[in-house]
Amino acid sequence: TDDVSVNGTKYDLDMDNNNVYLNAEIRPWGASTNPWAQGLYIAAGAAYLDNDYDLAKRIGNGDTLSIDGKNYQQAVPGQEGGVRGKMSYKNDIAPYLGFGFAPKISKNWGVFGEVGAYYTGNPKVELTQYNLAPVTGNPTSAQDAVDKEANEIRNDNKYEWMPVGKVGVNFYW
């Protein structure tokens, strides 16, 4: 698992990524006699993305959970409380732009490295709270705070781009 942080609330993140992509490489210096210049390229393409992420944040006895800057505790002591939900990029075609370096190290062998990003747009997000109650002095219900946080994830521009890194070996025939 990994995690994602929203307004200071860190959620555990389980990922299920299913991506298929097709890229074309443009080599501006492909005709150069310098093998290092020949290795530079720009990649452009598209991917079919079907990615699902499970989000979870749990608290135990005596703990508090901050959601949207407000604190919550267990509504029923002794029972786990928290937030669970899903974030997804479903059945989307995403454009890709990347930059790479792929020098030949012999007649038939080469290596490559590439960095880029897919433009995915904002994800679909659903969050629900369970067994949470506001601490004294907090007038906002736990579900209202969770709904606001889901909306912030849905509309936060930092989730619009999916970074990509690739390394590998090439064989030329």
From TrEMBL:
Quote the InterPro entries the UniProt record gives: OMP/PagP_B-barrel
Please identify the protein, giving its name as recorded.
Carbapenem-associated resistance protein
Tell me what organism the protein belongs to: Acinetobacter baumannii
